[in-house]
Each structure stands twice: as C-alpha cells, then as structure tokens.
C-alpha cells in the first residue's frame, strides 16, 4: 500500500499549516520607514545576490536563489510565516477573496481534453447551458485539446475580465454537431460554506471549510434560510477548517454573543493589545449551539471555538484542535510575490494562548502533531496533556486550558483504524472523484431528471460498482487494497456521485450519514428532552 496510514495525518497537518489567520484589521504601529530602513544586514544580502549574478563561474537563476533564501529565513521564524511565489499568488488571492472572474466550471483534464465535471450552480456557464460531461474543445477559436494541454493555458483562456465574453465550441455526447455556446465571464464564488441543511425539524447544520472574504455572507444567508425553515438549534461544523481572515471569524462569532462580550485579544511583540467585542444583535444569541472541531481545525476555527467556549456559549464537541495561535499579515515583495508574516499572537477571552510550542524547529512541530496518533489522545480525552499553570476559568466556572489547541467540552474519539483512515482520505480525494467521473461518463443518462431527494432515497451503489472501484484502487498508481470495507466504501462512492451531480451540499449530506459527532449531538438532544 503506497498511501500508508502514517502519512495521512502528515498530509492533513501540512494542509492545516497552509491555513492563514490574517490580521487585516490590526493597527499595530510600525511605520514603513522603520520597517524598510537601510542597514548593513540588508545590504549584505543584496550584495551577495549581485556577486552571484555577475561574478559566479556558471549562469545561475538568481530568482530561484532569492526564493530559497526567503523560504529559509521564514522557516527559521515560525511554522506559519510563509512565502507565496509569483506563480502561486493569484490562486492564493482568489481562494481568500472567495471568488474569481471566469465561466464557473469544475473540470478535469480528461485524456486529451477539458471535461466538465459540473457547472457551478448559478454561474455563467450553467446559465449558458454547459452541463457535466461536456468537452470544451475551443475557446475563441483557440484549440483546447491535445497531448500538450496545460492547466495554466486552460485557465488563462477561461478566466478574464469581468463581463467579457468567450465563445466556446463544445462536444456533447449524443449531439451530432459541436455546440456553439457564448459565455459572459462573471465573478464566480469559491464556496466556503460546503453544506447547509436540517438534521431534524429543529436542528440545522452548517459546514464552513475556511474563512474567506465571502464566508460571513455565505454563512449569514445559510443561517437565515435555516431559521426561516424553523431551526432553533445549530450545529456549526469546523472540522478540517484551516482558518482564514480574522474579520470573517469575528462576524460569525458576533452572531452568537451578546453586545460587549469579548471575542478576541491580539498582542504584538511590543505588548500592544487589540481587543474585539461583540457589537450588535446577532441572529442566534438565544439559539442552542454545537460546534464541531477536530485535530485539523486551526487558526480562525480555533478563534471561533475559543471565543464561544470562554463565553459559555454552546457546546464544543470533538477532539483537541490543531493549536495555531499566531496572526499573519500579507505583505507584497514588489515583484508579484508576497509573504504572510507572523505579526502577533492571539488570545481567547479568558486570556488563553492556544499556540503549540515551535522553538525546536518545524520538524519537531509536526512530529508533535503526529504524536497524537500514537499517544492515545485521539482515542481518549484523559490522554491529552494539560498544565495546571495554563488553567483558566470561564464566567460560569468551567475550567479550560491553554497551551496547544482548544480542548472540547464533549470528547468524541477518532476511529484510527487503518481501514477508516484510508477510506476517509480516499473519500475526499481526487482519486475517487476521478473514478466516479469515468463511471458517470458511461451512466449519466441514468440520473437524467433525478433530483437529490430521489437520488438519496432510490439510488444504491451496486456490488459491481464497488468491486470496480476496489480493482481500480488496487491496480492504479495508488495501489490501495480496499477489499473488506464494503459498507463505508459504498457510502463514500454514493457521496462522490452526489457531489458531481448535485454539488458539495449533497456530498456532505451523504457522507455525514452515521457520523459519530453528529450522532453525539442527537444523543445529547435526546437526553436533554428527557430531562425537560
């Protein structure tokens, strides 16, 4: 098996480390003149690069040397100060803006062409009539197929200025001729609220995958819709959420806390503090709240969980969060690249810092994260190490701890078996998604006219499809043996079909069936009703 259990938590940890907590509203007072004052240390670096550029015996790409130098400097500061090269900057910016200008499709480079997985609901491509399974062969007369197809070239022709038009020639299975479809480019959302639906008549569920510029608006719209449908209790799912913008997290917290409740404290190296308070009437100040976190909930996710826990609002359910309590600010380097530099630490309302120690270097930092898989803390709350010196007390007398993540009020163990770890990884990977796309290529007509409710109630993954995927995974490059995981595997396959046909909400709804943390919520609600 080339994807071994021990590597999966490392991949997740690296993903979490990529999450940012940007201090865009912090007003610490370092002037530009102070930051960029000339000194001998900076001159030394500039002179070294010049010597290599002009005098070194061989030709050297000094741009790459600079990139390596910047990365090396930042890695010696802390695990979360990062360099964003020019070629990655636009995608990073789109991700945090929460939108991009384009036609609005998800696609694969399938064989030698662009295959549409699905047109984003409400986006320009969907409105123009693009469907899942379509092949885009030409964009404004430019060939978009062949062996030399490159993703950068594809996105360059499909993205563009807002309201500009692109003329597409599309192959659709069953049509004799290519279709001519004109699409006007618009802002296309990069959704950060993956799912929003009702678990019961009273309990709503919202899953947030990151905190971008648009997250609060997405969240607010989802919550209002659920309230209109009779929701009086909410499950906010922040599992595997790596963080994001500070102001988006603060706005969401403000929906749950009464005016003047402390949300967040940030402190820079000079000791200057900024405090953020709830400022307005939230839509769910009186509603019952559950927040789900796990070992991959980081940064702004921990801000939300910590602020609510310290204000005795709601119940935090799950496992100890990642432990990232550093604030980054993005700073341009003048050539299209940028850094996200740690400028402050944050503290929860009781004064807790939840940043894990990183003084022994990045390797030790991530080894500490991986120890959770061997020291038993993912299976039992009693195995979480806490220090009495980092004990804090909430206004209602609940004891909470600082020093490395948010410890939940109600612990739910993780199934750390190889079977479950592997399936969890595969279910959310492009590996299974690609297989499902190929399946739909052959069977898309079977689902024509079917809505999600009909799909949920009537479609069952066949033994044949399950065995096909087992063979595919065994003999594909991944070389994973999934035989013996039948029940969970069928659910994952069904969820991936739902995602490609109906979108991310359908995926989460299907995959959440029987979820341990959601079962814990329902169990607690049942106990609460019996007591009342």
UniProtKB/TrEMBL annotation:
Protein name: Carboxyl-terminal processing protease
One GO biological process term: proteolysis
Residue span, PDZ domain: 83-159
SMART domains reported in the protein's UniProt record: PDZ, TSPc
TM stretches of this protein: 7-24
UniProt keywords, alphabetically: Hydrolase, Membrane, Protease, Serine protease, Transmembrane, Transmembrane helix
Family: Belongs to the peptidase S41A family.
Organism: Constantimarinum furrinae
A GO molecular-function descriptor: serine-type peptidase activity
InterPro entries found in the cross-reference section: ClpP/crotonase-like_dom_sf (IPR029045), PDZ (IPR001478), PDZ_sf (IPR036034), Peptidase_S41A (IPR004447), Tail-specific_protease (IPR005151)
Gene Ontology cellular-component annotations: outer membrane-bounded periplasmic space
Pfam families the UniProt entry points to: PDZ_2, Peptidase_S41
